[in-house]
Amino acid sequence: MKKHFCLQLILSGMIFLSTGLSGQEAQIINIENRNTQTLDGVWKYIVDPYESGYYDYRREARDQQPNPSKSESLFLGYKPTSPSERVEYDFDKADNILVPRDWNSQKEKLFYYEGSVWYYKSFDFIPEKPGSRQFIYFGAANYEADVYLNGSKLGKHIGGFTPFNFEVSGKLKPQGNFVIVKVDNTRKPENVPTINTDWWNYGGLTREVSIVEVPQTFIQDYYVQLADKNSSVIEVSVQLNGPDRANQLVAIEIPEAGIKGSLKTDDNGLGKTNIKAKDLKLWSPDSPFLYKVMLILNNDVLSDRIGFRTIQTMGKEILVNGKPVFLRGLSIHEENGVRGGRAYSREDAQMLLGWAKELGCNFVRLAHYPHNENMIRVADEMGIMVWSEVPVYWTIQWKNPETFQNARAQLCDMITRDKNRAAVIVWSMANETPISPERTEFIKNMILTTREMDPVRLVSAALERHTKEGTLNTQVIADPLQEYVDIISFNEYIGWYDGLPEKCKTAVFDIKYEKPVLISEFGGGALQGFHGPKDQIWTEEFQEDLYRETVEMIDKIPQLRGVTPWILADFRSPRRMLPDIQDGWNRKGLISETGNKKKAFFVLQKYYEKKKAEFPGK
Ligand code: GCU
Q1: 91 to each of 38, 43, 88, how far by Cα in Å?
Q2: pTM of the full predicted structure?
Q3: Residues 51-106: pLDDT tens digits?
């Protein structure tokens, strides 16, 4: 039974309202097409490395106390009322910081900072419609956010790359509201991701913040996509939120398809229907057509732009709209190396995906965490298919139930936000996770959640690969997860971490399953502009030779149906310390962080021209 919504999941026969790990409320989707007041722009900030604004000197959380000290509790946003009153902070005198933006790339003194920063924003609010409800919405905050409005706590959110919202109806004043957020990007072993990653730990309010105004009973969540393997039936599910959610009629209109349908919600405000749709203009990389879809509840129209396509595997084939495709991909980190810092805007998405499109990509692996919604919507518009991934990366605490709840909450929030985007074809559960019974159980349970929420899209993960014992260079996938995924994906670094490029010549891939294979990473480092003989490491010629040897090697894998080389652009990583070459950057990009192409870019571009000609699905 398809659930689509994270709200109601049947696990061991029990239906429960999942409020995620951190108690935040169910996610409201499609914010950009709702009635919003942005809080983006200039905020104030105070750095609090000892979290003295949150904990008292006995390390007790101040916001759990009946009368927290006005003098030090930063979340009160308190101002002294007499000359003798002691208050040890002042947001009015604090420095400015931009939201959305990470703090590392904005403030030199915060470049390496890991800890807590308090954000403050004052604002007025007049409801556009009397009797409406309001929510405060965050596109993401890395990593842990404690949110307060006018001195009262709204809640906490854990997870650095997924949206969250809190209801603020009845709490907003026409003037003089203030929202205070403590964002803590400290890495912890029990977190998702854990303490060791190969990317910069950008902290802060890294995506948009807005006040969303909705009717008393409104459309909170919905799913409008083609039924599984059926391009003439559109499945619609709608979840209402509000006092009158039960037994409501919701109309669905898709004018360009001549479609008018409707559904009725049940006692929980959940309604489903299937709508026959003949001769739909299907979404595909070569023709990324998006329909205007309107969902109408009591004259309240919520519109969206949605593409319709089928996605499935058949043996070793990946079929888009029934035609075999080869996923001509690239891995991408969410970073704008030209400006610096986390990417977040529509323009950032157009730059990064524009580079991928120029290389000849029809697919991108958004590593290693859910990217901002602009990336997914721009991919929808540009006809670039997407692999979207939760940061279950390397050495997660597989035996920790809270860690699992956290990973599952992030997975639910990723699927909830992007389940109506035709571009998304793969949900990825993990990257390069060491095999153990607990790890396999952890990820199998994530796959269960994914299948419950979205039975249509493909499931994968960067599985473990190793060289078969006693062989020169036979690569085997002995990862038990390969039985549970739709696409067998794995990272391989023959020629970089494993020998030199010529080692590619002796490689043999021994893959048992008749499933599509995707090489989710390969590559090597090069400093753009550094030239020399191809056996000189870090030169563009070395990287170019590695790409030449690799594409020749992987093209011999009969089940190969995609590749997402590591990586589109050089990206910051504290692990990369070689002076004059890395200087804190991972140099495996095909493009430098400032957008200059390296010679290997053209090797891959040529390979993709060949693959495009081989696969009619394009
Ligand atoms: C790993 C990992 C990446 C990392 C890359 C590298 O495969 O998945 O996150 O950046 O290797 O070493 O550059």
Answers
A1: 20, 10, 10
A2: 0.96
A3: 999 999 999 999 999 999 999 999 999 999 999 999 999 999 999 999 999 999 99
Helix axes 437-453, 401-418, angle to 10 degrees: 30
Within the chain, all domains assigned CATH 3.20.20.80 are found at 316-614
Q: CA 233, CA 274: separation in Å to the nearest integer?
A: 6
The per-residue pLDDT for 299 is 86
Task: List CB contacts of 382: < 8 A, sequence separation 6 or more.
Answer: 288, 353, 354, 357
SS3 53: coil
Q: Is the minimum distance from the CB of 213 to ligand 1 under 6 angstroms?
A: no
- Reference 111, options 200, 217, 234; nearest CA is 200
- CATH fold of 316-614 reads TIM Barrel (3.20.20)
pLDDT band at 138 (very low <50, low <70, confident <90, very high): very high
Comma-separated ranges of CATH 2.60.120.260 domains in the chain: 6-214
Strands 95-99 and 41-47, sheet pairing? antiparallel
- CATH of span 218-311: 2.60.40.10
* Gap between the Cα atoms of 428 and 423, Å rounded: 14
Question: pLDDT digit string (tens) for 112-131?
Answer: 999 999 999 999 999 999 99
The gap between the terminal CA atoms of the chain, to the nearest Å, is: 32
Distance in Å, CA 583 to ligand 1 centroid: 17
Whether 360 has a pLDDT exceeding 80, the answer reads yes
Fold of 6-214: Jelly Rolls (2.60.120)
Residue 481 belongs to what H/E stretch? none
- Give the mean pLDDT of 276-298: 97
Question: Where do the CATH 2.60.40.10 domains begin and end in the chain?
Answer: 218-311
Q: Decide whether any atom of ligand 1 lies within 6 Å of the 198 Cβ.
A: yes
Q: Is the CB of 431 under 6 A from ligand 1?
A: yes
Question: Two tokens at 99?
Answer: 């939201």
> Residue whose CA is closest, atom 6 of ligand 1?
198
